[in-house]
Amino acid sequence: MNKVSLIVMLALDLSFESCDKNDNFTPFFSVEDDKALGLQVSQEIANDPSFILLNDAEYPEAYAYLNTMVNNILNSGEVAYKDEFVWNVTIVQDDNTLNAFAAPGGYIYVYTGLIKYLENADALAGVMGHEIAHADLRHTSRNLQKQYGVSLLLSILIGDNAGQLEQIAGQIAGTVAGLAFSREFETEADLKSVEYLAQTEYACDGAKIFFESLEEGGGTPEFLSTHPNPDNRVENITAKADEEDCDTTLSPESGYEAFQSSLP
Ligand SMILES: [Zn+2]
C-alpha cells in the first residue's frame, strides 16, 4: 500500500462534503459490491501489522458478549441490511485507542481501549449502533460514488480496473481509524443509533453516554476532532431520544465488567 497516496486521499476525504440524504440516494454499488469491498478491506486490515486483531477462538468469552450485544441491535427490526450483510465484529487490541469503525458490508471493528474506557454496556451499544448505521446506511459506498464517480466504479466492477479496487480498499483500510465521514453522515449514524437502541434493552441514547464519558475523561480524542462538535452531537441525540420518546434508563447489569476483564 502506498502511504503517500493514502495521505493524499485522506486529505481529499476530509475536504469532502456531502449533501446527499439517504432517501434520495440511488446506490450504484450493489449489496454484493458492498460485501466484496468490505471483504477486501477486512483482508487488508488482517494483513496490516499495525492492527492486532483478537482471535475469537482465543477469546470466546469476550466475543460471546460482544456478539450478543451486536445481535440485540441487529434484531431491533430497524437494520435494513440485517440479513444481507455479514455483520462480523472484530476486537482490535490497542488500549490507547478509544475508537471503533465500520467497513462496508457489515465488518465492524472495536478497540480494547474503548471497551475498557467505557463504564457500561449502554455506551458501547451506542457506539456499536453508530457503526452498524454507517454500514447499513452504506456511507462508504455513497462517499466513493461521490468521490470517484460512476464511470470509474463501473470500470472497477466490470474488472477493467482490478488494481483500483485494491487501492480503494487500501485507502479505506488506511483511513478507517480516522473515520473520514462527513458531518451529515456522522449525524445520520448518531440518530440511527437511537432508533436501533430504542428497540433493545439498552438506553436508546447510549451514543450520548459515550460522548459524555469522553468529555468527562478530559478531552476529545483525535479521531473526533474532524467530526461534528461532540456538544452538538449530544444535543442532537437527546432531541432524537425525546422525539422517539424512548427509554433512556441503563440496561440491567449484564456482565460488562466481566467482559472488560476477559480482554487481554
Ligand atoms: Zn462515525
Secondary-structure blueprint:
Elements: H1 3-15, H2 31-46, H3 60-74, E1 88-92, E2 100-103, E3 107-111, H4 112-117, H5 121-136, H6 139-148, H7 150-157, H8 162-175, H9 183-198, H10 206-216, H11 230-244, H12 256-261
Parallel strand pairs: 1-3
Antiparallel strand pairs: 2-3
Helix pairs in contact: 1-8, 2-8, 3-5, 5-9, 5-10, 6-7, 9-11, 10-11
The chain binds zinc ion.
Q: With helices defined by DSSP (H or I, 4 residues minimum), what is the helix count? A: 12
Largest sheet: 3 strands, mixed
Q: Can you tell me the residue ranges where pLDDT is under 50 for at least 5 consecutive residues?
A: 1-23
Sheet/helix structural class = mainly alpha
Provide mean pLDDT, rounded.
82
Basic shape: globular
Distance between the termini: 29 Å
* Strand proportion: 5-15%
**Helical proportion?**
55-70%
Instruction: Give a count of the beta strands, DSSP E runs of length 2 or more.
Output: 3
Instruction: Provide the list of bound ligands, each named once.
Output: zinc ion
The whole-angstrom Rg is: 18 Å
Widest β-sheet, arrangement of strands: 1-3-2
- What's the SSE pattern? HHHEEEHHHHHHHHH
Walkthrough of the structure:
The protein is mainly α and 264 residues long. Helices cover 55% and strands 5% of the residues. It has a 3-stranded mixed beta sheet with strand order 1-3-2. Helix 2 (31-46) packs across helix 8 (162-175). The structure holds zinc ion (ZN). Zinc ion (ZN) binds at residues 130, 134, 179, 181, 186, 189. Zinc ion binds at residues 130, 134, 179, 181, 186, 189.
